[in-house]
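FIELD: query
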Amino acid sequence: MKLLQLPTLALEERIKEELEANPALEEDAEQIQEEDQYDNDEAGEAELDENGDPQEVEMKNDVEMEDYMDAEELDSYKYEVVNKGKDDDSREFVVVEGPGFRELLEQQLALRNMSDQEYMIAIYLVGCIDEDGYIRREIELIVDDLAFNNSITTDVNEVKKVLSIIHELDPPGIGAANLQECLLIQLNRKAEKTKDVLQAIEVVKNHMDEFSRKHYEKILKKLNIDSEELKEIMDVIKHLNPRPGNSDSKDLGVSEVVPDFIVSVNDGKVELSLNSRNMPELKISKEYIEMLKQYSKSKDKGGKEASSFIKGKIENAQWFIEALQQRYTTLLLTIQCLLEYQEEYFLTGDESKIRPMILKDISSRVGLDLSTISRVANSKYVQTPYGTFLLKTFFSESMSTDSGEEVSSREIKRILKDLVEAENKKKPLTDDELCEQLKEKGYNIARRTVAKYREQLEIPVGRMRKEV
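FIELD: result
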């Protein structure tokens, strides 16, 4: 179950850990190439039958497990696992490594004219920057930490001085204490202080609360400006970066999304393959098998202990190989069932074709536990001709229209999103108004359900969608 819920990248790391921890487990990257070459050589030397065709040659394993293991232990024993079929695509991604986000900041600090102590404080402050690019800790607490943990005696004024140097680094806005300071840093660093920029500074500095709550009437009155001028001010502010720390997602631990399944449509048929990127072919080490064979014949205590140790490593390797194979089978069974259930969507890409589907629908079809299907749906991605999606997005509740037709809640969410996109932004639709428009289209749902779907779509309430 733990292996099943791992996405592709995490599984690769788990396999690497197992290979490092268990010497009885080996990666057989060249097996296919060697076997193909071996088959070609054997075909060339094969004896011909009476019809002139090559005779079948019975291949014998050069290692006989029966020599040192009980027959009952061999029943389920497999020597290797291949996690990809001959028709599966082998997809490789080129990743270019470069300096991390914090390393880039430290490189910029090295070019600044600072004392040794100021540089050490600056490095500490860079380490305090969170994933959004802010330093949210109070200066007094930072001073205490520097004294107790880094043996650096300083004061609030010196830390503020160093912090002002960090505010001059790129990307602009880095190291701010909050959104207001972040925006002000970026505005003050603009080379040209046009009228719009100066007014934007005034809005962010003195009217940030009204601006964030979209109380535009109050801003118009206080600054004595018209709507067109406010639009220009808002345009300046909207082009600022509220999260400068997201400039480098790699350093902030944002994982690359690698699809576990690849769906394509050829000649009107849906075709499926499992993404086997960097998935090694594993096998039991022949060296360890030979060692077990030798030590199993030993009668002394040391030989028996060595035999027991090696046998344990081989059994652990075998368990891991079988677990990977079971994971592969479960994934394939689940996604194949899902493809059959949602075939119309995968053929057309039309979201209105997505059928209402819950975990139980797939669980009952494939004969697997609900928790198993849930683990697959919540952590696996599928690449389709229409985009890459998390599997759980294809599961949705069933709702009935006025005509009695069952539709997916995903279809209702799509219509809800379309209504919000088409609304008058100067007077956005409330949840009650959205509910009424959905009812006019035949979807009889409650206002609280509209609010729930809106939140799931990450659409703010009407007041927060208002524009000038």
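FIELD: remark
The chain has three domains: 1-33+257-395, 101-247, 398-465.
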